[in-house]
Amino acid sequence: LADSDLVVVGTVGKTGVAEGIQPPKGEHDPNWLEAIVKVESTQKGLAPEGPLRVLFAGNNDSRWYRAPKLHPGERAVFILHTDKTKTFAIEGYFVLDPYDVRPLGEREHIQALLLKVKK
Question: Is the entire prediction scored with pTM above 0.90?
Answer without folding.
Answer: yes
